[in-house]
């Protein structure tokens, strides 16, 4: 069968594939513990459910404007002012069916075939494939001193005349690293001086620990929003534990948002009206659910790091945010895919190979589940590795 070159070049999402594997094994009665997932286990905020229910009760669930319903775009405007101290307008906002779609719309809006987009290792599994989907070239930057914290010099070294954009994800999936304010400041300044787009994937920006806050890219920008090449990506999936609602957004210059909206009009049209209203409820309601989730995750992090640190040969760096840690197992097994497969078969624990994120020898292990899962899962890993 003849397929397109793009289709043949794109691999499956490793994380989604592992979710399917875990669900299949559970359906067979296998007592799998899933420590590879990226989905908080807490319930969606009550305000989100109330808002969605009220809309559902009307029986009037219709098409929406491509860029999103005005109440949600206005809620994003308020959110951006509160958490980023940046005044924008609804014309600077595009609502999409998840942050992943918002990133895809941004890439399609700003990249041409042959353009290069730079991002640090480790990276979210979809970044290289998404860049390839628009015919552009993904360029990964591998830090030397700290494997999860790049320097501006390392990023600058990969810039060529074909570089069109840099993409950062902080706090970082998979490592949980919170990039330093100095790095964010330097990247913003560099992008503005070189007229390069900066795509900030901030989906985890409120899930930070130890009294930290994630660096605010707008704090270091000298440009007005409509003159800026910053594209800020966010959504309700992680901080609000609303993964299944599939609502994300982008904040950028009106010209960029207009282009993204035109593309989205042919791609998917507007997102579900029902889940957009749920997002309005979450953003405009009490933020107690976010604070509770953040505290729960911080406690889970401490538990997971303590448990993994007790395993001989495993090096663990305490993550500053997200709900992942990225331990180094290379002294035990350098082939992360082989190790993940061994742990699934021997210990019935799902982890994600580090090679999927561009860094061999590591496994992404999630602590967004229950304390019971963390204790049992890490215990199984320790026992399995004792006989590896």
Brief summary of the model shown:
With 388 residues, this protein is α/β, with parallel strands linked by helices.
Question: If you had to describe this structure to a student in words, what would you say it looks like?
Answer:
The chain has 388 residues and is of the alpha/beta class. The protein has 2 domains: 139 residues, Aspartate Aminotransferase, domain 1 (Alpha-Beta Complex); 239 residues, Type I PLP-dependent aspartate aminotransferase-like (Major domain) (Aspartate Aminotransferase, domain 2). 41% of the residues lie in helices and 12% in strands. The chain is built from 13 helices and 12 strands. Strands 2-8-7-6-5-3-4 form a 7-stranded mixed β-sheet, sandwiched between helices. The protein has a 3-stranded antiparallel β-sheet with strand order 9-12-11. Strands 1-10 form a two-stranded parallel ribbon. Helix 3 runs antiparallel to helix 10, helix 4 runs parallel beside helix 10 and helix 11 runs parallel beside helix 13. The radius of gyration is 21 Å and the shape is globular.
